[in-house]
Task: structure prediction
Amino acid sequence: MNKYEILHCHTTYSNASTIDSTLSIQSLANRIKEIGGTALCITEHGNMLSKFDANIIAKKNGLKFIQGCEFYFVKDRLAETEGKTIDKKTKLPVMIKDDTNSHMIMLAKNQNGIIAMNRLISYANIDGFYYKPRIDLDLINKFVNEEDVIITTACIASFINKYGFDIINEFDRFIKAGNFFLEIQAHNTKEQKEFNKKLVALAKEKNIPLTFGTDTHAITEDDELYRDLLLKRKNIVYEDEQGWYLDMPTLEEAKFRLFEQGILSESEINECLNNTNKIVESISNYDISEYHLRVPVPKKYKEFDIEKRFEILKDIVYNEFDKYCEIDEYAKTNRLKYIEEIEYELNEIHGCSMQDYFLLNYEIIKRGKELGGKLTYTSRGSAPCYITNKFLGFTSIDRLQFNLPLIPQRFMTKERILLSHTSPDEFTSSIIEK
Result:
C-alpha cells in the first residue's frame, strides 16, 4: 500500500448548511494529487452543491469524481412531540421534531446512486428540514438500493453514536452487500478514541470492514486561520473540535496519528487505510456533466434525443419569425439582420444544451395565453435581450427595434450556463390574468 484515498472532506459549499470551511475545491484537488490520491470525493454537510464544479475540476486534474454527501440523519424526519413552549395564539404546546441531526456519509457507486442521493437531498429539504435538511430510514428504504451507494458512519456525531449501535441492524442489507463501513478517524481526543474502540469491537462482532476518514476542513495553517476568522465573524464556536485534525495528512502521517491513538493494531490501521482504496476501485467512472441538468422535457418531445429537440426548437423559432415578417415591415426589410441574430442565439442555446428550457417555457406560455393570459408589455428581467424570446412568445419586445440597446449576453451565454449550472438570467416572461 503506497497511498490512501480521501473520502470525507468539506469545502466552502458545506457552508450552505453548516458554516465550517474556507477550502476551495481546487485546493483539495491539488492536495489529493500531492499525497498520491486518485479520486476527488467531497462530502458537504447536508448538500451536494459542490458536485458540478467538483466534477469539472476532477476531470481537469485527472482525478476520479465521486459524488458524496454527509447527510443529517434522524430516525423519523416527520415525528413530532410536544415541546415545553406554549404558542401564544393557540395556547397549545409548540410541536418539535428530532433535532439530533446525526451524521452519515453516503457515496454514489453509479448513476442509480446519484439519482437516489439527489432524491434524498430533495426530500431532506421538502419535508425533512428542521434546523438542518434531514433524511431518515423511511427515505433510505424508499429510494436507495444497497448496490448503488456506500454508507460510512462518519464522525463522532455518527448516527450509530447518537442512536445506539443497535440501529446498525436497520442497515443490514447494505452490510450484506459489502457497502457499509465503520469510519475510523484519527483525532487526538478522548471522545474519538472511545468511539474508535467501540467501532473496532463492532467490526469484529458484525464482520463489518473499517475505513478511514480525514474529515478535512483545512489543509494549510493559513486555511485554519481563515476558517477561524470565518467562525469568529459568525460568532460560531465548535468546542468539540479541540484536538481535532482538520487537515489532509500523507499516508505516513495518517498511520502515525492512528498509531499514536493506541486503539488500533498495525493490521487494523493498514486495513482501514487500504479500504479507502478498495472503495474508490468499487465505484463506477460516472459523469455528471451539464447534460444531467436539462430542464424537464415537455411530454410531447420526450421521445426525441437532444439534437432532434434542438431542431424542433429551431423550426418553431423560424416559423414564428416568418409569421412576424408578414406583419412587420422592418423585420421583412431587414430579414438577414434578424437571421444573423437568431443564429447567434440558437448557437448559444445549442452549445449548452438548453433547448429544453425554451421548449418547456414555450409550451407553458402558449397554454397560459390559451387560457386568457396576456404578456406584460414591459416583459421581465433580461428576457427581451434575446430576439428568440420574441418569436417564442416570451416577450412583446423586439430588441432590434427597441430605442435602447439590449445586449443578448445579459440573458445568457453558453459559457455562463455551463459554469454556473443555472438556467438563463430570468424566467422569460410575465403573464397576467385576463
Observations:
- The chain has two domains: 12-288, 292-432.
- Residues 306-327 form the longest helix (22 residues).
- The CA atoms of residues 74 and 98 lie 7 Å apart.
- The chain is about 45% helix and 15% strand.
